[in-house]
């Protein structure tokens, strides 16, 4: 009511008369017929339970959240839901921040009545533990732009957000089996809400003394009309709720005509909501698949490459088995060469060293110790003694050892000749 008063103060008398005279000719200011809806656009956010609805110039955003709470005492096996509306001053100059006004309260009650009285939401499925824990659903409706007919736009936003909302799955576990476990979305797929039907609100406006009826009134038409009626129906034609606002009376025949028109419009809007939700679910499933397999073409190429390798390997198993021993010997020789002085992989200027030449040179320079030579000479086989080479080597080793022993046995006393040798030498002379 206060919104219509604010709009009527903005409009001039000539503008009001122009709108009334155009309706008498079945023409509206925006070019529509009296029973035509504006363009309806439904978009969804990246998260589940968020929807944006644009009906002409009217724009509403709906968010759905849930939390675990205790149930009511009279309904221990049923969950609950509540609707909260927020009118931003950016949407309309007549909206004021702070506490919700009359228009905000009326809007929330109309949408709530349509969902609650028709029992569109299965509240029993929201029960986790009877009498202890249930899910409480909260629906927030934010008015972004007021272009008229906020009730219909808010109702569609609430239905679209409820259709895409998913709550976490809960199970009982633990040692005693009474511990509540809330599974995150990564562990188990969240569960959607169970909606039995879609109660769609359709608003009619009555303008002039002749009660000219029109559907989906705009911002300017709301300032001219003397009364309005909102009928909430589903696709089956069931009347879920009716809200009459304004002082002008309406005939019964006019109400029945409005209900017949609302039944047709409710079916069209329901089909649009379902199509939008179906496309959103398809995109959501594709996003989930991409999260686990981001490159389907790349994965198929990799799989094909592995299959080709397997087929080639199976064909060459016979050939590989024939050259298995030869490859092992070559590999052993190559490792020995590389270990004994082959070209270093880290040094590009290394040409390598001949391992055999290096061994011979080192062996020729090494002189074995005397004790070792004695042991080797004492352990010589008789066969080796019979050979001339071995005898020569043994004789050479024995002479070498005797010489060394003589050298090692001399002392300072040996340097001085004994007296008897001196005398002998003198007598000989």
UniProtKB/TrEMBL annotation:
Hydrolase found in the keyword field: no
**The organism sits in which domain of life?**
Eukaryota
Which stretches are tagged as biased composition: Basic and acidic residues? Answer: 402-417
Q: Which Gene3D superfamilies match?
A: GHMP Kinase, N-terminal domain
Q: Which UniProt keywords apply?
A: Cytoplasm, Nucleus, RNA-binding
Query: Would you name any one GO CC term?
Result: cytoplasmic exosome (RNase complex)
The UniProt regions of compositional bias labelled Polar residues, in chain numbering, are 313-323
Provide the protein's localization: Cytoplasm; Nucleus
What GO biological process term is on the record, naming one?
U4 snRNA 3'-end processing
What the entry lists under Pfam families is as follows:
RNase_PH, RNase_PH_C
Give the span(s) annotated as Disordered.
313-352, 364-429
Segments of skewed composition (Basic residues): 418-429
Q: Which residues belong to any copy of the Exoribonuclease phosphorolytic domain? A: 37-168, 197-263
- GO MF annotations, alphabetized: mRNA 3'-UTR AU-rich region binding
Low complexity bias: start-end ranges: 382-395
Family, according to the entry, reads as follows:
Belongs to the RNase PH family.
PANTHER family on file: EXOSOME COMPLEX COMPONENT RRP45, EXOSOME COMPLEX EXONUCLEASE RIBOSOMAL RNA PROCESSING PROTEIN
Q: What is this protein called?
A: Protein ECERIFERUM 7
Source organism of this protein record: Ambrosia artemisiifolia
């Amino acid at each position: 009511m206060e919104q219509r008063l604010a709009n009527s103060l903005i409009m001039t008398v000539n503008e009001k008369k122009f709108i009334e005279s155009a309706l008498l000719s079945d023409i509206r200011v925006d070019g529509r017929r009296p029973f035509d809806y504006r363009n309806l656009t439904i978009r969804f956010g990246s998260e589940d339970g968020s929807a944006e609805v644009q009906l002409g110039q009217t724009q509403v955003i709906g968010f759905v959240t849930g939390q675990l709470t205790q149930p009511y005492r009279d309904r221990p096996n049923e969950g609950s839901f509540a609707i909260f509306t927020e009118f931003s001053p950016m949407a309309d100059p007549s909206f004021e921040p702070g506490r919700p006004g009359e228009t905000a309260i009326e809007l929330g009650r109309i949408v709530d009545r349509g969902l609650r009285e028709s029992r569109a939401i299965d509240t029993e499925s929201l029960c986790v533990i009877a009498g202890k824990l249930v899910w409480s659903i909260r629906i927030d409706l934010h008015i972004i732009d007021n272009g008229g007919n906020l009730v219909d736009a808010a109702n569609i936003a609430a239905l679209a957000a409820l259709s895409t909302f998913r709550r976490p799955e809960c199970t009982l576990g633990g040692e005693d089996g009474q511990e509540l476990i809330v599974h995150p979305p990564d562990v188990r797929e969240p569960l959607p809400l169970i909606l039995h039907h879609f109660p769609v609100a359709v608003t009619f406006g009555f303008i002039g003394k002749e009660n000219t009826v029109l559907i989906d009134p705009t911002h300017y038409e709301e300032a001219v009309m003397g009364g309005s009626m909102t009928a909430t129906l589903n696709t089956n034609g069931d009347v879920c709720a009716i809200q009459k606002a304004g002082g002008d009376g309406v005939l019964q025949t006019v109400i029945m005509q409005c209900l017949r028109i609302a039944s047709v419009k409710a079916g069209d809007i329901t089909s649009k909501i379902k199509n939008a939700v179906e496309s959103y679910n398809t995109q959501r499933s594709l996003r989930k698949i991409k999260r686990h397999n981001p490159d389907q073409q790349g994965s198929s190429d990799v799989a094909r490459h592995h299959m080709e390798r397997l087929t080639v390997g199976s064909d060459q198993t016979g050939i590989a088995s024939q050259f298995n021993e030869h490859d092992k010997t070559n590999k052993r020789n190559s490792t020995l060469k590389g270990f004994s002085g082959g070209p270093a992989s880290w040094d590009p200027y290394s040409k390598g060293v001949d391992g055999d030449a290096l061994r011979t040179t080192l062996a020729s320079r090494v002189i074995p110790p005397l004790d070792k030579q004695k042991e080797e000479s004492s352990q010589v086989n008789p066969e080796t003694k019979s050979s001339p080479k071995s005898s020569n080597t043994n004789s050479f080793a024995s002479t070498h050892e005797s010489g060394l022993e003589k050298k090692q046995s001399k002392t300072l006393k040996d340097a001085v000749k004994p007296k008897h040798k001196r005398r002998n030498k003198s007598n000989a002379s």
